[in-house]
Amino acid sequence: MFAEKNGIVTIADGLLQGKRCEREPAVWAFLGIPYADAPVGENRWRRPQPVRPWQGVRDATKYAPDCPQVTLPKGSFYQVEFYPNEKIMDEAQGLALNVWSPAKAGEKLPVLFWIHGGGFREGSGGALQFIGETMAAKGIVVVTINYRMGALGFMAHPELTREQGGVSGNYAFWDQIAALRWVQKNIAAFGGDPEKVTIDGQSAGAMSVTALVAAKEQTAGLFRAAIAQSGTVMGRARVGATLRDAEEQGLKLQEALGCRNLEEMRACTPEQIMEATDAAGLWFRPIVDGDLIPEEYSTRFFAGRQNAVPMILGSTSDEDCLHETQADDYANYKASAAEYGEHASEFLRVFPAQDNEQAGRVVSFARTARTFAGDRITAECQMALGCDAYLYNFTQTLPNADGTVVGPFHSSELVYQFGTLYTGWRPWREEDHRAAEMMMSYWANFVKNLDPNGEGLPRWEKHASGDENCLLLCAQPRMDRVVRAEQAAFMERCIRKGVL
After folding, report:
1. Catalytic residue annotation
2. Contacts of 344 (CB under 8 A, 6+ apart)
3. Which of 127, 348, 352, 353 has its CA 20 to 30 A from that of 269?
């Protein structure tokens, strides 16, 4: 299909020159494709605008620069693990996506649409772990995207609210929607089926996925299934700010920048905005804006007003195991119990600790349990709409150079999911390659058939309400009791009662 045309594809906005992949020669890559106009000048803090068509053949053999974002400290764990190369950023070119396709002439393959994580502050669809060729070789089209982050992606402001008809903020979510609409319009040119799109994301990307599932009025028909890895919008204050609270954050940024109005803020460089954000101690996040997200997430899901789509949901089995014991961990542990109100004594019972070391481990246990609780609640809300849901714990440990193992930490599953172990420094074992093959096969089957099961894979049972089992996902997957089941049940009760 692609070779006959020398890797040139025609889409709505012009011609693209792609390239054959080296590791998977049957797969072609088309990189750095703009899906929206440059979000600069008047377009900054505005919903994404249509792409300007180009003349001639556009080179699509290299990634676009990343959207402006924070840079992880050099030598930090996640910088070494996932971002060994220096980030190249450009506000004008960041709204781009990447496509990998193994399609032959006449094929209409299902599509995996990937939304990266990074705390809504950093990340890229072009990160090493998200190279899509190995996953695409499973018989699907893979799409990864960039979207605006931080203040550029989420800032609300009274002037913006007046300018934009009574609402502002959540521009990153509108970017994701624009990219999904691009897929509907253009993916057939790459041999993809626009009626068979599955959205998938991890961490902040998983929160994005569940927010898009919630935003039924704007996203209905853009995807038929969803996958959320290590994150949902359930019980997450990070994604639940009100428009008024978000506007106050925007005014604080204006003050930190020393600007008199929105016009002057739009004239600032991205670097100035990021520096002022850090200096003022601000963290810009998604909001319940009354428009894209009409109401608080749990209200929406419990009422069944979200998209009725089947889902895979899960998390790693030791999300925050990288936490290093701090001198104040025990004091923070005792203080955090108060956040649970009348459930404080039960928190202390379910998560027992007597010293800093034990309290430091509770940091991971609590995050792991809370994350999975959100997964299970979301799964059961989808089931109430008649949709299937599959739950997992990723339990595969990763090898260190000294023969020890680490994990499974937050984000550790990503190189397995995309089959990109080769991009990392770790001395991978045969079992790691087997775990990657298992995970890729489950994911590809779900994208194709809305069911992760297939030949040669241990059976992954659908979730049933009240069931404490899930798939323990590793080199030898099996159905078993969820890791930290009692703690997850406690967190689930707290979320359902509105404590979290």
Report:
1. 203
2. 337, 338
3. 127
